Amino acid sequence: MKHLRLIKQVQNYRSIAQASTRNFSQLNDSAENFRLSELFVKQYDPKVTGKGPVQFGFNGVGELAYRRSYSRVREVDGQQEDWHQTVERVVNGVFTVMVRHSNENNIKVDSHEQQKLARKMYEKIYNFKFLPPGRGLWAMGTNITEKKGLYAALNNCAFVSTKSDDVDGFIKSFTFLMDSSMMGVGVGFDTKGALLHKHRFYLPKDETIRIVIDDTREGWVRSLEQQLNSYLRPGQKKVVFDYSQIRPPGIPLKTFGGTSSGPEPLVQMHKYIDELAARFQNQVISTRQIVDIMNIIGKCVVAGNIRRVAEIALGEAEDSEFINLKNYKLNPDRMEYGWVSNNSIYAKLGMNYKEVAESIYKNGEPGLCWLENMQQYSRMGDPKDNRDHLAAGGNPCLEQTLESYEMCCLVETFPHNHNSYEEFEETLKLAFMYAKAVTLGLPHWDETAKVMARNRRIGCSMSGIAQFIGTRGVHELVNWCDQGYSYLKKYDSYLSKELFKIPESIKITSIKPSGTVSLLAGATPGVHFPLSANYIRRVRLGKSSHLIQPLLQAGYHIEDDQMDKQHTSVVEIPVSLGDNIRTLKEATMWEQLQVASLLQKHWADNQVSCTVTFDPEKGEDASQIEKALDYFQYQLKGISFLPKTKDVYPQMPYEEITKEEYHSKMQNIHQLRLDRSKDENFLKFIQTEQVISDPQPENYCDADKCKI
After folding, report:
1. pLDDT tens, 367-399?
2. CA 47 → CA 56, 57, 320, 426, distances in Å?
3. Catalytic residues
4. Within the chain, which residue ranges are assigned CATH 3.90.1390.10?
5. Measuring CA to CA, which residue among 399, 518, 406, 418 is closest to residue 459?
6. Cα torsion at 75, 81, 87, 88 (round to 10°)?
7. What are the tens digits of pLDDT across the range 426-454?
8. Within 10 Å of residue 8's Cβ, how many Cβ atoms?
9. What CATH number has the domain spanning 529-578+646-679?
10. How far apart are CA 317 and CA 360, in angstroms?
């Protein structure tokens, strides 16, 4: 009976997704759409209230990140959003998802209470108490979800296992990664398909079949499926692709932003796979070939203008072929695409870490993933519960335990931006509601919809932890974590049973690495310590960007990008984190591990994403890494390491400066005004340059780079 109810539930969500493809203008007029009152939103419109600018973080870095990545073009007037309008779109979008779910499932709701909750959520987001992930800031409440029903675009990350005896299932793991990556979802994958010794490359027949590729995301993914079919089944015709329907380079991409690349990246992907299949024909597919294909797909997606790709390859600890994948002396041909994924091992409790530690010390890889801990524990400080016994891996930054084909949504809170635990608890409630509501819109993959309908996994995260510890101390952090986690468990029970009528979430908390989203709020990313208390943050912008002019007017130093003087400018923004924060200069490898362990014990029932920076000059060498892994294998679920390096190229993203240098630079900087509505000269500049366009979002877990 439980299985039948689950099937019916998935079917219900399918009907919601189908309904969402109706004409968008009709949806706007329907009772299914939630809207905050216009009068309420006007209270936050600076043009109406005359209030000062929004308090973005880090002296303009936060607003610059917002304008570059999340301020979309409004359909009603063709202008790019200001912050109060982005928040309005997001809140309307998430409550619309909730309204449609209630209507579809005949759940009675108090519309007055919904308005109250929506207003509170608006206030919390507007004031940077919590933020949706970059995916949510960019896609929620847009045609991507409301018209196309692509709810997968709201999720940060996914995992897929290649372990399938069936050829269809094996091929599907590759097409799932490509489809998800093209929607901005970061994907982890394993190499277990190689352990089956089942699949091999066959030489197709001389006879050919001509296939015209549709100029759609689905068309590109389908071409991969057709190509792999021709090689993984005996006696197939050789596929010859026709790329004539694919739009030329430079055409705007309406759904996911950016511009088209033309067919060349897809041509190259097919070429690489052809060569791979020919090279290893009639051989059983190995670890290397699985990772090669996944990386080749990732390179295609990057070149296809979907901005970035995040992949993590998880291999066996004893698999020397896997360990040496990025040894380009042994595998020089992999340099073309081997960079696409971070490679981590399934570490086993009690294993000998000597060889792994030496590899980390030399190359910064592999990372480690303790699947036993992920499957058996929620928080590591709680007793074993085996709740995740079906888990198979994790996402590219490894803050989420995941089953195969499972996706997850993250949401980020900023405890440092709160005056009391009671205020923070109210924020947790609304942040949790956002993430849980995202699980109401199930993705278009049947396997994904099924596992997500059952698990409802989310990751309620924290950033600014280094700032919190600096001002309030470790003891207060532990108290807020324990109280907050206990509260969320109870709230999940209420929200799931009473309001949504869905299962409680299998796991609810994590620490994501963050990046762009934490910049908006002026928070240090996730669990990580900053490089310095005072630094220059460099941001790269295209020379035609409409953000250049107001930055110059505010007094920021802008210069040519030394690597691309013709097209790119570099903006230098001074930042100060104050005097009460520990930096990577002070925080040893052991202290970083201890903070990660503390949060894995008291907060994260999924994982803590942490890249530990070690300093060889302090004696933190391979032997120290080996000892650390020995101790912390019983306290963590995943970890990676990165050697501390000095400036290795000009115009680094971060440059340490002194407190005096910071104050000196700030004397030349005035209030940054990126509100286009009040600057006539700027409006003329925009109209002349015709640069109004949707931004390209920051993808995945919002980290600049997922090291693990």
Report:
1. 999 999 999 999 999 999 999 999 999 999 999
2. 18, 21, 62, 29
3. 397, 399
4. 529-578+646-679
5. 399
6. -40
7. 999 999 999 999 999 999 999 999 999 99
8. 9
9. 3.90.1390.10
10. 13
